[in-house]
Design goal:
- β3 (53-57) and β4 form a beta hairpin.
- This protein has 294 residues and is α+β, with helices and mostly antiparallel strands.
- The chain is built from eleven helices and eight strands.
């Protein structure tokens, strides 16, 4: 199994929802994974952070595999191997399942500006990111990962409002998030969930569809962690906004900070779902390589 490569040193956590078609009970499934060398415990439904992996019941689907706090290549490799192990044991997914990735931001001194940058970035690139997903995960098609902000708001509208919120609340993250949620709504069931900061010190990416494919999960974790890195390092809030042309947007969103294998994967997914014109995807692929962006 080829493993994805991660450059970010941020902490992250992952929740993998799945259907238990293995023939084992929840407790037996945890034991099977433990016998394979993973530290997995079966628990009742809870939101407590553990030092081990846990399998819990999930209200929206069947079961959920929840990680401890992870970091770096070791954490990514373990996640991908566990996803494959679940698949090998006979577990599966359907459209009720999702993959949620938490990315740590608690230790960032510039986290308030980073949060604003991240919201702008995800909104500016919403159509490109949607194009990587099945229809059930685009726009507002899934009740558990609604659009973070109104899909029809223009970049100018979003930028003006977020700049105003930042200027009024740039000292305190709690008041910043409260002001943002007073504007966009405070539900955690959004593609980018800010509620998780209060309990875990993270931002949560909830958009990815259910999967036990280790490469899909690994590449999505790489995208989430690298995107947070990019947005939190940007000196100018406008520096993270996407380019005016679709091909440039694809490169800006997925090529900067990623390796060529990751970008090839993204282009393959865009071709698979066929939402964007194929010639635009090919143009982005060629140009990213020519410019040595990957």
């Amino acid at each position: 199994m080829k493993l994805s490569k991660i450059k970010s040193n941020r902490t992250f956590g992952v929740e993998i929802e799945f259907i238990n078609t293995s023939g084992f009970t929840k407790a037996q499934l945890a034991d099977e994974l433990t016998d394979l060398g993973f530290n997995v415990i079966s628990e009742a439904y809870n939101h407590n952070t553990r030092d081990n992996w846990k399998i819990v019941t999930d209200g929206s689907t069947d079961l959920e595999l929840v990680s401890p706090v992870l970091r770096g290549q070791a954490g990514l490799d373990e996640t991908m191997k566990l996803a494959k192990a679940l698949s090998d044991l006979g577990c599966s997914v359907n459209r009720t399942c999702g993959v949620h990735v938490h990315v740590g931001i608690a230790n960032d001194t510039n986290r308030n500006k980073g949060i604003i940058n991240l919201l702008k970035y995800m909104h500016a690139n919403r159509r490109i990111i949607d194009s990587l997903m099945p229809d059930s995960r685009r726009e507002n098609n899934n009740r558990y990962c609604k659009e973070t902000m109104n899909f029809l708001w223009t970049g100018a509208q979003v930028n003006r409002k977020l700049n105003k919120i930042f200027n009024q609340n740039y000292h305190y993250t709690e008041s910043l998030i409260t002001s943002i949620q007073n504007w966009i709504g405070d539900s955690r069931y959004k593609k980018l969930n800010l509620n998780s900061f209060r309990k875990y010190g993270t931002v949560e990416f909830r958009q990815h569809s259910g999967s036990l494919d280790s490469q899909k999960i690994g590449n999505w974790i790489v995208f989430c962690t690298s995107t947070v890195d990019k947005c939190f390092k940007a000196k100018q809030m406008s520096a993270v906004i996407n380019q005016p042309h679709i091909a440039e947007s694809i490169i800006n969103c997925f090529a900067v900070g990623y390796n060529r294998k990751m970008f090839n994967y993204v282009c393959d997914r865009l071709r698979h779902f066929n939402v964007l014109p194929i010639n635009i995807i090919e143009q982005a692929h060629r140009k990213a390589i020519e410019l040595r962006r990957v």
